Each structure stands twice: as structure tokens, then as C-alpha cells.
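Quick start: read one record
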Amino acid sequence: QVQLQESGPGLVKPSQTLSLTCAVSGASITTNYDYWNWVRQPPGKALEWIGYITYSGSTNYSPSLKSRTSISRDTSKNQFTLQLSSVTPEDTAVYYCARAVGSDELDYWGQGTQVTVSA
């Protein structure tokens, strides 16, 4: 059973960098064709895909967030990390990490973590 668990600060000040980590168990993040994603849901809005890092370490980001987003990984710890810079209150959301196999739909999700951007 694949399990994902997000962790990180729940409160970030405007202009700072949001940093979240997703710890993965039950699967290796280097398994062929697995894509490890970040998704968020602002209050009252739809889910928004942020980006992914692949089994080989390649990354791809949403065009609307690309200039502020970085996704990296630590294979020794089997985890991957989201960094979103220059945050504003509009970045307030529940942030999820999730897995997809290639271009298939996201099949395993973390529980989500609330991040609030406020002074």
C-alpha cells in the first residue's frame, strides 16, 4: 500500500518561501514511470495542479506557477519537496502530494496539509 504524508509549516508570512515535504512509504520514488505530484485547493476553489518530479528526477510545473516553484527530491529518504517562493495570501490552500503512473490519473494521495499565508 502506497502512503504519502505531507509535512511543513501551517503558517507562512507574505513574501516568504513555502516549503513542504512529502514522505513516501510502500513505494520507491525512483520506480520507473512514477510521477510525484503537488496539488493544492484554495478555499472555495477547485483543485490546482502545481507540478511533479518524475522517477528519474525530471520536473514539470504549471505555467502559472513555474516562476515561483521548485520541486526536488531526496532519494535516500524517499521523499520529495515543494518550494513556492514569494507567497501571497492567494497561495493559502490545502496542499496535497500525490502519485501518478505516467500520464494516468493520480491514484494515491496524502491527507493534505493546510497552509495559510498571513502576516
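The radius of gyration is 13 Å.
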